[in-house]
Design goal:
Length: 185
């Protein structure tokens, strides 16, 4: 496996991550009204979207470090655009990226469908620990926490995987993936 980063890979991932950062900023404005409407359990449906910052760069390039690079670029753009969550978006991105990098390393950076699903679920676990502490989930009942985790895992496995695969396919169709390895998963 080639580990050296190429300029084209860095540029594509930086552009994609910046766009995700803009999307996350828009989601920041919708988060509180949506949370009030959906409640803590159903709000976890959005996790698959938040998974993009680490999962999509890893899936596009499939080399060590790109999940972390993408997550950090996304967080920087999100913060620069005025995210109310500040440094917490960096921490969430790093935790997601660590989970994605770990699972991709196990699969030797040759992702298949199972790799995508497992990396999303593990990222959900890693970020949930942060969320439990930062957002005070200890005050919630065990049933609500179990419900939140279940919906988060489903969102990561289904929505996250579909978005990652769909966006990568769209980039391929648009010609942005010339000279990138074809995707088998």
């Amino acid at each position: 496996m080639e580990k050296k980063w190429k300029s084209r890979e860095v540029v594509i991932v930086a552009i994609v991550a910046a766009v995700i950062g803009v999307i996350y900023t828009l989601m920041d404005y919708a988060y509180m009204p949506l949370a009030a409407l959906l409640g803590p359990v159903l709000m976890e449906l959005t996790f698959g979207i938040y998974l993009l910052s680490a999962a999509l760069p890893a899936y596009i390039v499939r080399k060590p470090g790109f999940a972390l690079f993408g997550a950090l670029v996304t967080a920087a753009v999100n913060i620069l655009l005025g995210s109310a969550y500040g440094i917490q978006v960096v921490l969430a991105g790093v935790l997601q990226a660590l989970a994605v990098e770990l699972v991709y390393a196990i699969w030797k950076y040759k992702p298949n469908l199972l790799c995508l699903v497992v990396s999303g679920i593990l990222a959900g676990c890693f970020v949930f620990v942060r969320d439990y502490i930062v957002f005070g989930y200890s005050t919630l009942s065990a049933g609500v926490i179990i419900g939140m985790l279940a919906v988060r895992f489903i969102s990561a496995a289904v929505i996250g995987t579909l978005l990652v695969k769909g966006i990568r396919a769209g980039l391929q169709k648009a010609g942005a993936m010339k000279n990138f390895k074809p995707i088998d998963a």
